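Observation: inputs received (chain + zinc ion).
Thought: call the complex predictor directly.
Action: predict_structure
Action Input:
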Amino acid sequence: MQCTKCGNKAIIRISYANLLLCSIHFWEWFEQRVERTVKKYRMLEGSRVVAVAVSGGKDSTTLLHVLHKLSSTHGFEVIGINIDLGIDVGTRYSSLSTEFAIKNFEALGVKYRVVKLQEEYGFTIDEAKVKVRRPVCSTCGLVKRYVMERAGKEVGADTLATGHNLNDVAQFVMSGYHSGDVSNLARLRAVSPAENGYLKKIKPLFLSYEREITTYALTKGIPFIMDSCPHNLRVGGPTGDKLRRILEETEDQIPGFMFRLVENFEDRVRPFFEDLPKFNLGKCKVCGMPTNMDREICSFCAVRSRLLEGKRGAVAK
Ligand code: SF4
Ligand code: ZN
Ligand code: ZN
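Observation:
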């Protein structure tokens, strides 16, 4: 297997682009793909400080490295954010994830902030799994979105970047079509502009396959946690899992299928959702963060107060 560009030993086949690439040419190709995505969707237009949400896994650590590389030519600063979720019962999953995130922040010399859920908010995701009557990944997702938004603002960022990859987004699109949950699909955006008190959100890897990201991280020697979260039930439960497998099998048969599904969704389908009525947002009476007008207290504060009930000495932030 020889690299299409230089004839050296190829390390990856990109079937949908009809390419075989050696490590050097793959890195170049991968970074250009991310840069083209960022430019096409104007992700960094007006961004000065980009907070990168780094869990310590392959996607977010790769995102950190690529955005750090782009930061000098595109004139923005990168700040890393990690949340220690407190998923440690029987494992050291969260502690290890945070260690990997810090390793990357320090190797690149970027500023960073680690939010320890237990210390700053008085609870852990392990506790939420036991005490909150909703699937743990749903609570965890809510907590991560809230804490990232808040930490992003605290470090002075105007933009928050997350490492969702193409396979994640393709699964989300298919789940949305399958369930007919239009409001969920309408919220799926490569770029969510800063509005209603929220930071701008961007997904620079949303057109990069999981397999390409893993290859980039491994061949570049980026340190990342390989273990999965012990609570790992893929988003969407067993149906979501099957949809993902079907998508990946279809990709094998029709190279580029997921890419076109997601790119066409973003470019041609989602614009039809622009006219859907938007939520009216107010301010949470407890924390002051944006919340749906129908609610006085945001979902995060509601979950947190349930978790802190009965805990002595818990101080509301
Ligand atoms: Fe959180 Fe679920 Fe992901 Fe674990 S698998 S980190 S609980 S969302
Ligand atoms: Zn080559
Ligand atoms: Zn609140």
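Thought: report the result.
Final Answer: The longest helix spans residues 136-154. Strands lie at 12-14, 19-21, 49-53, 77-84, 111-116, 159-161, 191-192, 200-202, 281-283, 290-292.
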